Amino acid sequence: MAHGQGHSVDEYLETIYFLAFPIGEYRPATATNAIASRVAEMLGVSRASAGEMLKRLEADGLVERGEHKEAILTPTGIERAERVVRKHRLIERFLTDFMGYTAAESHVHADELGDTFTDDMVERINERLGQPDRCPHGWPVDPDVEQAENAELVSLAELPAGGSAEIVRLAEHDGDLLHWFYDNGFAPGATVLRHSAVAGADLEVELDGAERTIEESRAQGLYVRPAA
User: Fold this and answer.
1) pLDDT in tens, 126-173
2) What's the pLDDT tens digit per position in 7-46?
3) CA 223 to each of CA 24, 168, 189: distance values in angstroms, whole numbers, following the listed order
């Protein structure tokens, strides 16, 4: 597979997939997310490199460009991106369940290994793991399940004051942030209660009964299911 400054077509598609919908449901990107500069920032490449790859993806029929030159996945692009996302999540489970890596470590290594596993290998992993529902960070392995679940979730930053919720998913795009979540107990399955809200300030929360503080930018990467 050809690479653009060390990143494969699949990695670009996966990045555009997440920029198009941070929580998961695909909808056309706006000027503020899947533009070349944002894709470049997410992948750690130059703006020129991202622009060249986006031109190639467009020529290959995987993306089309919107009125603001944003990248919008075509139906073919969506199908391939969802296959890439599913593979990544199953490899993460292989790394945690079989290889003993931590949940945070698994994300980084899954990125490195993605292109080395064939579709057949991924299906064998899926069977050996007993067809797991989710990756270690709470994201459904099946993109259809992910998209159906989105309506039930909000970011912790959006949880109203006094609201209680269960942490369901952790944003994966930033390895350092992912490590921070686990180091500080913000893991899937934990219960979080938000105290009074002050706009622009750090969030004061109760995490499994312990008082904690989390920056709003980090809270935007924690997806929770509010209690009924």
Assistant:
1) 999 999 999 999 999 998 898 788 889 999 988 999 999 999 999 887
2) 789 889 988 888 775 554 333 344 455 678 888 888 888 9
3) 11, 6, 11
Orientation of helix 119-128 relative to helix 75-97, angle to 10°: 50
Q: Is the separation of the CB atoms in 224 and 156 below 8 Å?
A: yes
| Cβ neighbours of residue 104 closer than 8 Å, sequence gap 6 or more | 175, 178, 179, 181, 182
Q: Could you tell me the pTM of the whole model?
A: 0.84
Q: Where do runs of H (alpha helix) occur along the chain?
A: 9-20, 36-43, 47-59, 75-97, 103-113, 119-128, 143-149, 175-183, 216-219
Q: Which residue(s) pair with 3 in the sheet?
A: 8
What sign results for the dihedral spanned by CA atoms 87, 177, 100, 150? negative
Task: For residues 181 and 186, give the distance between their C-alpha atoms in angstroms, rounded to a whole number.
Answer: 5
- Mapping DSSP to helix (H, G, I), strand (E, B) and coil, where does residue 207 land? strand
| 206 Cβ contact list (under 8 Å, min separation 6) | 192, 193, 195, 212
